Amino acid sequence: MATPHNEAKAGDIAETILLPGDPLRAEVIAKTYLENPVLFNRVRNMLGYTGTYKGKRVSVMGTGMGCPSIGIYSHELIHFYGVKNLIRVGSCGSIAEDIRLGEIIMAQGACTDGNYAGHYELPGTMSAIADYGLLKLAQETADGFGYAHRVGNILSSDYFYTETPQWKRWAKMGVLAIEMESYALYCIAARAGVKALGIFTVSDSVVNGEEMEAQERQNSFTDMMKVALETAAKL
Ligand code: HPA
Fold first, then answer.
1. How do 195-205 and 149-156 pair as beta strands?
2. How far is the CA of 157 from the centre of ligand 1 (A)?
3. How far apart are alpha carbons 19 and 16 in whole angstroms?
């Protein structure tokens, strides 16, 4: 049952998984929030754990950075391990002037400057969207906690460093923030008929270069995790 990138055995991974980009963050999430976390993957140090949260079986695994990397892991999670609900928990850079550092953003849709959907050979452009049920649940959960959050479009960019400030054109289209993975995740989930959602904390402003302080970063990370875990527990 193992894949080239995941040594988990059949049944090791829960139907609901949280997906941070950083594998060490996956380990911290597992050890901080899950009861009885069990390590299921160490291949390429892309750590994955399964435990329970409020009695619900939940997994957490790193994805690496960029659409190709999350594309590999999420495809295998769905098609080899039967994962049904994939919740990306990440950070993003805001490109809208009125968004504050530490705010939570839920990606209703994801744009791309790459070509992840190219291999589907669609006769047009794929609009990659979150699962509405997951999004609604996450939003209700955030509302319940009283956490400020936005729901809208993001850009999954292939480029962290660019020659020119291309983000300005996306900002004109109402796109809220930049990250690097959700477009692929949403396409893969759509193709497989499973559910995906990206939830983010705004770690930096691409508009003015501001970055969060360590403590602020930790607080907003905790808020995002509470939203993601409570959403997972309700599935
Ligand atoms: N660009 C891309 N990904 C990111 C950023 C960014 O500015 N901030 C956090 N993730």
1. unpaired
2. 9
3. 10
Sequence-distant (6+) residues with CB within 8 A of 168 are 95
Q: Tell me the pLDDT band of 83, cut-offs 50, 70 and 90.
A: very high
pTM above 0.90, yes or no: yes
For 25-63, the pLDDT digits (tens) are 999 999 999 999 999 999 999 999 999 999 999 999 999
Q: Where are the domains of the chain?
A: 16-233
Cα gap 38→13, rounded to integer Å = 10
Q: How far is the CA of 177 from the centre of ligand 1 (A)?
A: 8
Concatenating the DSSP letter of every residue in 100-166 gives PTT-EEEEEEEEESS-GGGGG--SS---EE--HHHHHHHHHHHHHHT--EEEEEEEE-S-SS-SS-T
Q: Give the C-alpha separation, 144 to 107, whole Å.
A: 19
Distance in angstroms (rounded) separating the CA atoms of residues 90 and 192: 22
Distance from C-alpha of 224 to C-alpha of 48, rounded to nearest angstrom: 19
CATH architecture of 16-233: 3-Layer(aba) Sandwich (3.40)
Going by DSSP bridges, is the β-strand pair 104-112/85-94 parallel, antiparallel, or unpaired?
unpaired
- Looking at the CA of residue 92, tell me the nearest atom of ligand 1: 9
